[in-house]
Amino acid sequence: MNPTRIFSGKIRRIITCIGAAILIASITLYLALPVAALFLRTTPDLFFSTLSTPQVINALFLSLTTSVVSLAIVILVGTPFAYVHCRNEYPGKVIVDTLIDLPLVLPPAVAGLALLVLWGRVGLLGQYLSLFGISIAFTTLAVIMAQIFVASPFYLRQAKSLFEQLDPAYEQTARTLGASPLRTFALITLPLTANGLISGAVMTFGRALGEFGATIMFAGNLPGVTQTMPLAVYVGLEGNLSVGLTISILLVLISFAIMIAVRLLARGGTFRV
Amino acid sequence: MFDAAIHKKLRDFSLDLTISAGPGEVVVLMGENGAGKSSALTIISGLITPDTGLIRLDGTVLFDSGTGMNVLAENRRIGYVFQNSAVFPHLSVQDNIAFGLRARHKNPVFIRERVRHWLKTMNIEDLAEVRAGNLSGGQKQRVALARALATEPALLMLDEPFTALDAENIRLVKDLTRAFVTEMAISCLVVTHRVSDCRDVGDRVCVICKGKKEWEGKPENLPACTCRNGDV
Fold first, then answer.
1. ipTM of the complex
2. What is the pTM of this model?
3. CB–CB of A177 and B148 under 8 A?
């Protein structure tokens, strides 16, 4: 064999490897460096001392409680909705499908403004609620509504796709064995789609926790009432940066936990049929 | 005794069938893929409503378009084993067999006894605790058969029960089917597209082509080509 050809083949392989390494390193660094910078900008002492300030605790508590409530509502209403939507044909189904996906592409600030002009004090529906002394905008309820609007598609899309992919023979067999539709849903449909539903729920929780644009437009930025963690980060930029850094690090850690949970659930995944 | 006259407009053709099966009789519905065999079973089971027709089982009217009677699928006492056997993969073998009995709110002691009986009869006692998703094709088919028979149905329906099985398991499932239908004196409908299955398990054969019955008779008299299009 020609030694020159072997040599040129080796060089080509080395160049390919170096090119691939540069590509992987540049993408990884681009994503990882900003996150690393957050951790490097503070010290463990400063992080833990800031963690106990009322501003951080209030924002953390508010974010977690509103996200949990939003998630619970999305699961309780969204699961049966997605099931009924998948199993039935009805006029306007395509429009409903599009509406489910809309918040994913809609800028959150627009979503917040839309909620405000509907539910605000002089909004389309809000003006009638005002007559009964009910005000939604700039309350904790508005935070939850904004989170549901922006985050629910993550769960709804996942649930829809899972129910569509599930072999109808399972449910049909259960029915012929004497199970009611409700029993079939509880004992067959839900367990067979549980991993995917949980992973959708985790993503929804993560999106609700990080919600900023719609919240600040519709719920404002009132500490202890509507100031969630992302809003407190924004406020921290103008005042105490260490508060912003501490909350940001908390959000990064939670995001990591969410991604790990989703990956584990995806791996535990589907049952062999 | 089971008898049905059903009419249903399907996507490509109309299903117009008259089928009957006596106690202990295995009637084979034969035909090419897409002939309407599985649709007929789905309609009989109550999972799809026919446009018109009459379905009766042991003297009970399950569906009558004339009177508007339509018994729900869960109340029809029909054991239906689907093509891919559809064992519930997240449940153990014994929970699969117990599923129908629990759904019908049977006594727990009775359920335990019946499950034990069917595990033994199907020779799958050692698999009782195994998740059904981890079983082989033949084992799944035996579990599906046990699960359907455990509810003591008046009619057993098997949709392509012998596909995806090796020769040994085909023989076994055929023998089991034949034995239980005779022993329990129930009516049985088997959907298949293979002539050998008709001869092995069938007492009577109905050849279906595009939703219509093209030929009916004893398996040994099955002509080489019965469908007008020459499909079978």
1. 0.88
2. 0.83
3. yes
